[in-house]
Design a protein that fits this description.
By secondary structure, the chain is mainly α. Helix content is 77%, strand content 0%. It has three helices and no strands.
């Protein structure tokens, strides 16, 4: 049996999701900087890369927090339109 989720995760799933997206942005930026340094001379120093990565992660987390609800509503509307376009039988017509 899986362990129960901590109360913070259960009570604030949007915040946890936004922080995870921020971590993805942070790591993606560092991976891109490292890849660039492997192909060409290093673009920034290690310290500068970490500072920029933290800023990228913060912006990513903030953007994810602000847009997550809108994207969910958009996806639900799109799924509802696709179901209606297929006559409501939940079968693919392709």
């Amino acid at each position: 049996m899986a362990p129960a989720l901590p109360s913070v995760v259960r009570s604030h799933p949007r915040i946890v999701s936004a922080l995870l997206w921020g971590a993805v942005g942070w790591m993606a930026f560092l991976a891109l900087v490292q890849g660039y340094a492997l192909v060409v001379d290093p673009l920034v120093t290690f310290g500068q890369a970490v500072v920029i990565a933290v800023l990228v992660g913060a912006v990513t987390a903030g953007t994810a927090y602000c847009l997550e609800h809108r994207v969910a509503v958009w996806a639900a509307r799109r799924a509802r339109r696709e179901t209606d376009a297929h006559g409501g039988d939940d079968k693919s017509k392709s």
